[in-house]
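Worked Example 4.2. Consider the chain below.
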Amino acid sequence: MDGDLLPIGQFARLSRLSVKQLRHYDELGLLAPAYVDPDSGYRYYRRTQARQALSIGLLRSLDVPLPVIAEVLGGTADALHGVRETLEAELARRRRTLATLERVMADGLPAAPVRVVTEPSRLVVLERESAAGIADVARATSAAVGRLTRQALPLAGPVQLIGLFPIELSDAFEVRAALVVDRDDPARPWERAGLALEALPGGAFACATHVGPYDQISLTTHAVLAWCAERGHPLRGPIREVYVSDPATTEPDRLVTHLMIPLEEGPS
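Applying the procedure from the previous section yields the following structure tokens:
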């Protein structure tokens, strides 16, 4: 050993990291000690390694994952772009959550009026997308709707889109987007896309109308679920979101969506 080597405890204080962190970074190959005593296994570091150790601490404080830190230290110039996109997505989600909270603070807990409606069976084409938890519902729904409209439009008549969601939202679940079609439509664009026609069951539904951004629909869903629970209706799925407005031409605060929960047993 030479005199430039520092024991792990002293180096930890110099780099503002814990001994446990330094050992972990060594195990990951992120920051190896300059020397390891072959008898005691004790780790020693050079003072020149402090800059790298401090850089790791800085990047961790910015929520940069350790594998990405390894890329940054290895000189990969664009390694942080993905982290930035992730943080922006999380920030957007937090802003949506804050807006929903502010609506609850202003209007109280959801108590949208619920009515019972009878819906006919409808002929639809479907697209499916896996959602990785509740926070991923908006992305999954947009992806399914986007693919569906690209493949199955234009139709001869008006466009009616319906989102189908399970009652229980686990760590991973399937989101379905349905487009109502007319079997006699002369264009039949779904055939060119290879989409099969399916029957969306009708029946009696508990229904409430949501007016506002899609990311606040959970408030109206809450009201319908509470209404069903209070009246002893079994919670059956899928929950339907019937999109009345065109988001391309309607302000988010004016979007109209019907929330519907089936009251009768039927195929899901």
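The domain at 5-73 is CATH 1.10.1660.10 (Multidrug-efflux Transporter Regulator; Chain: A; Domain 2). The radius of gyration is 27 Å. Compare this with Example 4.1 before moving on.
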